[in-house]
């Protein structure tokens, strides 16, 4: 990225400079000079475009892990006021609606599972449906699927996948109440019937990790984290149903924007006012997809527990937290001293409520909301905590991953899947996958330095580091 | 002169299809997209499906075509490797040939949908070119 087009406003924050003759677009990017320099100029272009959408409140923000997306940059955050013509954008949510991470903490330690890790990895690979073209054991009728879309993770618990107490640790207690299954097309529903309880592919994974480093002992204690503890992180989303909803509404909202006279700086920013028939239709469908994703991760958490129980009878795998990072949700935020209801788009960004927020489970309320930055399979991930400053910095948002440093195409030219798997095994990280191409595209070297992203997230006041998680086994989609 | 290739995008993949007509270019773009999901040489063609859609915007027609194929593939549990498309006015009718997923197929990564990013359908001296970014 061309840093000449930015004005540095703090150690970790940059404002897009105004250009002569062009209305100023308020956009702020977080990170250090090195992180920003490695970002594509398209990130700057995209976040500037987002800042031109109707009803925007405050600036549009790019997180330290931002990279070139479609419409919104991945790592983009923007809030809109529905009472001021504020919009909702399908491109601002993405195809994989409510893609996110379910993080499970165990009562096991690395030394306990080390003797069984090979067999555990094999068993997880067999029991967790992963990869393109792979369906799960669960085949749902149309009626059952509507119940999923209405009930989310709460539906999954009612079916015996986990227990209701853990829903406390899932955003919205596992269910968006304003879902409208009738707004979801028959094709979207058909696509999902065999895909509940599947991981998907691309950057999705199930990873067995070890708490390798504690940064904040007090928050770690509140989160139930300790050195050497085994953690499982599950990264996936709303599968075929969400993809189909994203697909259909991208085109229909692009046409709606044209009809409503909304000038789009980029067609991919297809949108409609929150308070419009088109906007409301998308919101109902999007919420249904969020419930689908929450139910999916609930089922996968259950399959994971069952697999662990086979090797370690009586072991506990409790939900630490479940975060979604492709959403748009109505939230109360302080704007110039007043509380206002804003619709906050987070496209590849994690909600990060600060200490004391009423939506944080009581156990974590003093520490702040858990935030999970999922890194590449060769480096590691972070658990962070939302900060008191995050609301003013980016509507209580933080990074969601390491962020890609190179394209999939470039990665394929640079690495072979088998070579990556062998190299990681030498480092004590087991990979199980059906796609060597997928592994090459997801090679650790194709991602930014997750340590730097986490440091920048903390430096920018978005979230503070609590613990670093080192991967030891990964089922790649 | 039908052919396909890829172009760079940070998180996802750009597909480019070329052909003597817009329909052939769209078929090539579909080949490019499905080759991301499975190695074409490892596929057979015992199954055939039909898709159709109405679209008068030539750019959006590419997105509709690719997404219709993705929807059909996921609905039927098939993976495709060969395509045929025809157009009458704004009505597009296509066919795709492939097979159900099986263990021996060399898998790539799932394409979630075709996006409007870098979307372009244009004709030149050497024929038509259709391109867009697909989300993986």
Written description of the protein model:
The complex is a heterodimer of chains A (477) and B (136). By secondary structure, chain A is of the alpha+beta class. Chain A has a single domain, classed as tRNA-splicing ligase RtcB (Alpha-Beta Complex). Chain A is built from 14 helices and 19 strands. In chain A, the strands form 4 sheets. In chain A, strands 7, 8, 9, 11, 15, 16, 18 and 19 form an 8-stranded mixed β-sheet that branches. Chain A has a 7-stranded mixed β-sheet with strand order 1-2-3-4-5-13-12. A two-stranded antiparallel sheet of chain A has the order 6-10. In chain A, a hairpin with a 7-residue loop joins strand 15 and strand 16. In chain A, helix 8 runs antiparallel to helix 9. Chain B is an alpha+beta fold and 136 residues long. Chain B has a single domain, classed as Archease domain (Archease, Possible Chaperone, Chain: A, domain 1), CATH 3.55.10.10. Chain B contains 2 helices and 8 strands, in the order ββαβαβββββ. In chain B, a hairpin with a 2-residue loop joins strand 7 and strand 8. In chain B, helix 1 crosses helix 2. The termini of chain B are far apart. Classes of the chains: A alpha+beta (477), B alpha+beta (136). The interface between A and B is large, with 50 and 38 residues.
